[in-house]
Amino acid sequence: MTTRLTILGGGAMGTACAMLLAEQPHQQVSIWVRDQDQATEIQSTRENRRFLPGCKLNDNIFITSDIHVAINHCDYLVLAIPCQFLRQSLQLVRNSLPEAVPVISVIKGVENGTFQRPSQIVTEILGPRSVAILSGPSHAEELAHRLPATVVASSEDLELACRVQQMFSTERFRIYTNADTLGVEYAGALKNVIAIACGICDGLGFGDNAKSALMTRGLVEMQRFGVYFGGHPMTFTGLAGMGDLITTCVSPYGRNRKVGFRLGSGESISDILHSMEGVAEGVATSKSVAEIALRHRLDLPIMQQVYEVLFCGKTPQKATMALLERPPRS
Ligand code: 13P
Q: For residue 195, how far is its CA from the centre of ligand 1 (angstroms)?
């Protein structure tokens, strides 16, 4: 029987998800791309030249800029749009998406202002329904080239998590299930902030010792934050936490790391954001995290310094000193 999946978002991750899903011939995939010219180009050339050049799309992938055509008769909705645009995109389908259609999010961010996770935005806009999160070390470029990767499918509805596992699995894409959606979503969002810190470290030429320290202490901050709000500690040492943290902090593809690298090399954040392709979610997430940390008195020194570099004009050098000059701790 044919399963119809609709992906909202034609960036690198949305396209890579379509390619994984389309490996199973009984799965028909539609991608909604906001820009009409871009949608037409991808549909006719069978390639997303802007975000995944050189990767051919299977015949069972259809691309459209008409969101109602995209979601028509869909069995599952997959969300692959930046977190700050999620709410407005879901508004477009709120009256036409049947309640029974489960939603799968691959978004790694926290909404500014509301501090909501993607799954919370989904249920607020679309009403109560089953939601799953697919997260872990999964650079779209590597997935699209069919390099081996492993992630988690997380849902309070374990049956949905198992279906997501089946639908996305390929010979080279292995999926574990997990019930801690809160932990998985926070881990995916927070690792982006630490990746910016690691990029700054690389841009400043600080070497591997400093970067390992940032990753290790950054993981402690991710876990402290997530556990405070009810996440399971082990989620943060698993694929969605440590696994994705490593990939995002070391990979040359990482958008968040690239933002940090350019900051550490002396560029301004406005120049970086104006010239970059795609969205580095960690920038907006660092703002939410700093506000949440202040409100709940959470001690997150690395994430705080990233926020101050991004939003308060602090230099990367001063942020480094602020971290190193903190009183010794046991
Ligand atoms: P970036 O957005 O930094 O490229 O991270 C991608 C990612 O989440 C890999 O798992």
A: 9
CA of 247 to the centre of ligand 1 (A): 8
- Give the pLDDT mean for 10-33: 98
pLDDT in tens, 198-232: 999 999 999 999 999 999 999 999 999 999 999 99
Q: Which residues of 189-216 are buried (b: 16+ CB within 10 A; e: fewer)?
A: bbbbbbbbbbbbbbbbebeeebbeebbe
How far apart CA 111 and CA 121 sit, in angstroms, is 8
Closest approach atom of ligand 1 to CA 138 = 10
Which pair of tokens denotes residue 262? 């350019």
Distance CA 20, CA 2 (A): 16
Length of the chain: 330
Q: Does the predicted model carry a pTM greater than 0.90?
A: yes
State ipTM: 0.96
**Pocket (CB within 6 angstroms of ligand 1):** 108, 137-139, 192, 195, 244, 247-248, 253-257, 280-281
Q: What is the pLDDT of residues 289-317, one digit of tens each?
A: 999 999 999 999 999 999 999 999 999 99
Q: Could you give the CA distance from residue 103 to residue 119 in angstroms, rounded to a whole number?
A: 9
Nearest CA to ligand 1 atom 7: 139
Residues with Cβ within 8 Å of 30's Cβ and at least 6 positions away in sequence, in order, are: 4, 5, 6, 7, 61, 62, 63, 64, 69, 70, 71, 74
Q: Which atom of ligand 1 is nearest to the CA of 195?
A: 3
pLDDT band at 108 (very low <50, low <70, confident <90, very high): very high
Q: Can 191 be counted among the known catalytic residues?
A: yes
Tokens of 264: 């550490």
Strands 149-154 and 131-135: antiparallel
Tokens found for residue 86? 């999620």
Residues 174 and 47: beta-carbon distance below 8 Å:
no
State the closest ligand 1 atom to the C-alpha of 192, by its place in the atom list counted from 1: 3
Instruction: Among 173, 248, 286, name the best residue to mutate to test ligand 1's pocket (greatest count of ligand atoms within 8 A of Cβ).
Output: 248
> Exactly one of 108, 191, 211, 258 is catalytic; which is it?
191
